[in-house]
Amino acid sequence: MRIVQVVPAITIGGVWRQIQSLSSLHSRDFKSIVISLFDLDDEIALRGLSQETIRLQLQPERYRDEKEIRSALISVFRDISPNLIHSHHFYTDVYAIPCAATLGIDIIRSVHGITQVPNEDIFQRKQIKTDWSAIEVSRELELEPHCRLTLTASNDLRRKLLNYGFDPSKIEVLYPGVDPHANARDPDHRREHGANRCFEVGFVGRLEPVKNPFAVLTLARSCAENRLPVKLTLVGEGRLLSPLKEAIVAQGLAEYIALLPATSNALELMHEFDALLLPSYSEGCPLVMLEAMAIGLPVLASRVGGIPEVIAHGENGFLFDPSDVNGMRTTLERLLLDDNLRSNISDRSRETVRSRFALNDQLDRLASIYERWMK
């Protein structure tokens, strides 16, 4: 039984890692084939491919040439003759859903997040818009009758779609899943390297305005001013990379912040961290959060999107407003000084993943959804 996964491009990130995990569906008698539309593929991500992939490599400037894109997709769909199509992005919805309707193939879609950031003032934003545009909402509502089901990565996303007027009977929540048996890090591994070393805090994600990476600089400055031995590492790439580099030098923060390129194996890096920071303005249900929790890494995250559906403040992690740098700093100080707190948060984080976000459980749910609509 063939399932086609349609994505805009193959790039390093949480959504791509989720799609990569669908290769495990092969053991459930499904063959998952990925179609990448645009010529924006990341070479590091391409080297990590674990399932059959068709790269159409359409030029990005032709996003609006729907006739060309649909013609290419229809040709590929006919060649593959899939039992079901699964679209994973707004850009792929507007092309894949009409093509599926033309060919009489059932299609479902996933909403991993709803975020649009205006282009102006992206580097020094006082406020941020975290919503679909009216045009995007209109297009998605037009496509809804031709789509069997919409999967959302959190209840928060489901509520947003309902507010837009989507049919509640055609929306289901399917959280991301991760391996709950990933090698756990030792919450007291600091002792192995000396208790006086810096407390290592990581940021792993796209360096884009919605991810709020400049909060890392503000936090680093606050820690330095309060003589807190904290070092922060930013792992990722994006439009804000150059502005971040310039700001780190201009603010004299080079000894407190490291910048590392995006990697296909961020999990190895996270084993070296003492905490993970997610200061985003908007999220669905970030996979990097679940990956960190699976290895027992304490997470400090924004109280946005689906994150509060996973983290209970002070129980299995910590929640803050994206601008609450003082709260983040004082929590880091508590974690640095309190061995029992680190251990308890670590244990409860792993248990949360084992009980609610285990990859095999989520794949079983997805397989049952696929079977419901298979032809």
Briefly say what this structure is.
The chain is an alpha/beta fold.
Separation, N- and C-terminal Cα atoms = 9 Å
What general outline do the C-alpha atoms trace?
globular
Q: What percentage of residues falls in helices of 4 or more residues?
A: 25-40%
Mean pLDDT: 87
How is the biggest beta sheet arranged? 7 strands, parallel
Q: What class do helices, strands and sheet pairing give?
A: alpha/beta
Q: Which key phrases capture this entry?
A:
375 residues, 6-stranded parallel beta sheet, alpha/beta, 14 helices, single chain, 7-stranded parallel beta sheet, globular
What can you tell me about this protein's structure?
This protein is an alpha/beta fold and 375 residues long. It is built from 14 helices and 13 strands. A 7-stranded parallel beta sheet has the order 3-2-1-4-5-6-7. A 6-stranded parallel beta sheet has the order 10-9-8-11-12-13, with helices on both faces. Helix 8 links the parallel strand 8 (199-204) and strand 9. The radius of gyration is 21 Å and the shape is globular. Residues 116-130 have low confidence and may be disordered.
